[in-house]
Amino acid sequence: MEDENRRQFHPTKPIRCIVKLGGAAITWKNDFERISENLEIVSQQLRQAMTVSTSCGKVLGMDWSKRPGFEETSCVVDGFNFQPDLDSSHFIVVHGAGSFGHFQASKSGVHKGGLNQPLVKAGFVATRISVTSLNLEIVRALAREGVPSIGMSPFACGWLTCEKNVSRHLGRLAVPQTSWLNEGPPRTHRIASADVSMVAKAIDSGFVPVLHGDAVLDTSQGCTILSGDVIIRHLAEQLKPEFVVFLHAQRIVHCDTDSIFSESSTLLKWMLQDVDGFPKVHEDGKWSVVKPTFENLNKQVEFTVAAHDTTGGMVTKISEAAMIAKLGIDVYIVKVATSHSLRALSGELKDNIPEDWLGTVIRFQR
Fold first, then answer.
1. Which residues contact residue 6 at a Cβ distance below 8 angstroms, ignoring those fewer than 6 apart?
2. Of 234, 195, 198, 231, which is closest to residue 215 (Cα–Cα)?
3. What is the pLDDT of residues 354-363, one digit of tens each?
4. What are phi and psi of 25, to 5 degrees?
5. For the chain: N or C, fewer Cβ within 10 A?
6. Three-state DSSP class for 27?
7. What is the pTM of this model?
């Protein structure tokens, strides 16, 4: 099966960027199935990042279906020949579920497997209804900005996992110095089958594939939840983008000092900082904490993971970002819907990191 994955079709056009929209960045994670206003801003920024023409023509939307709360549909067909050119074929979008899907998966235990149990099977269906409905809303938001987006579900594309083995995440997880911070990332989903040929063909056809965290089949335990962070790492391995951008929300984690880390960029700099100011990822995928020292932090960090989060929370994000950096691909982690996120999406950070840019860059250090 691994040989089959190696023979997959790859796009003829180079991939510029894979974008991860964090679930908490585009939804209100503690408000059941509610989309955040950030989604509209993100869609606008992605269009700006893809625009290659200097002309300021009117944006013509591609969502010609009726929207709840709107009496009229927007179907303007005249003027498409004069649309600003988009470099859309060089982007892939992957999003998390946020307040969609996690509740259904958690209540039914989908992430633990056991499709032979009626509750798990029902939860599998309910989870996919929820996450695919969010995927549709994201595709529509991008389409309204003139981005030719196409929703692609991992389950429907034949993605399978095998022998899922994820570190324990129970509420607030205390991580001592001798744990995974110094020993490398925890084991996550092992991809048994992931056909990226349709993703590649969509890119070559000028579309922007939009994938999402999904409920998928697992060859060992029957089923599980495949997180968007794991999907991004696999896509990066297969398609080799120039860079990857993680867009996140505020107040993800805190430590046991008086300081509140309102952005994961602060956390990552703290855990992975190299003497040159960039997080250090070694060739074997491990990393080390240089400063501040654990003596100054009571030798412990705490991650807050929502009770309904079935994907591993921040631990998985950091692990997958480090593994992507190990491939020689720059990873930018930045707050969503800000001027800093637009600069990251536009590729301004590839050669030099501006002094006034706020975020985190993870680079492979040879």
1. none
2. 231
3. 888 888 888 8
4. -85, -25
5. C
6. strand
7. 0.79
